[in-house]
Amino acid sequence: MFENLNFSLSSLCVQPAQRPELASLYTVVDQRWNQKFDRLSLLVTVRDQGTLVAAGLVHDSIVAPTSSMNAVELGCMAVRADYRRLGIRQHVTSLRLAHALRAGRTPISVIDSQNPASWAFYERSELWERERSFEHEGQLKFIYRATEAAWQWAAQLPQASEDQVAIRLSQAPAPSAPFTLAPALAYPHAARYGSDDSASPVPVM
Questions:
Q1: Tens digits of residue pLDDT in 125-156
Q2: Residue 147, exposed/middle/buried by CB under 10 A (0-12, 13-18, 19+)?
């Protein structure tokens, strides 16, 4: 399914010269967006022949009122419109979830109530449970956290993890050139998240 796509991991902070390319994926790029990238523990990017088509973070800059201890958020998930419904979103999510759990952190996701396909997935998934709801800027949102089943899922994954992958940005990227990341190993259990078709809703973050 992903033979033409390159999934890459990085644990390094994204430098200012590298951010415009990432910003092209997002409708809102503000101080909060930059703060999340400043505080990332993992950046997953997806490229098609060098073109950035998707990205997602694990970050510890959390403003949602979670009671989860040691929490990290799976945030800033974005996929270019012409690359949706290909299974990219759930594969990026599985990479981030596995990373957070292997780091011994408590993964959470914040979902807007106006995104019914997403929160419906979380309501049905055995890997997530709703912690609480809250309002932000007049919008109802839900906080989901990983369940015990998620920890069991991560424990069953092969031990090939990001510590076996070169996860470094190129040392001196040109300001106008896209940054490159080393290819990441795919997690075979990513299929647990289904596909991007309407019969199998997947997380949208």
A1: 899 999 999 998 889 999 999 999 999 999 99
A2: middle
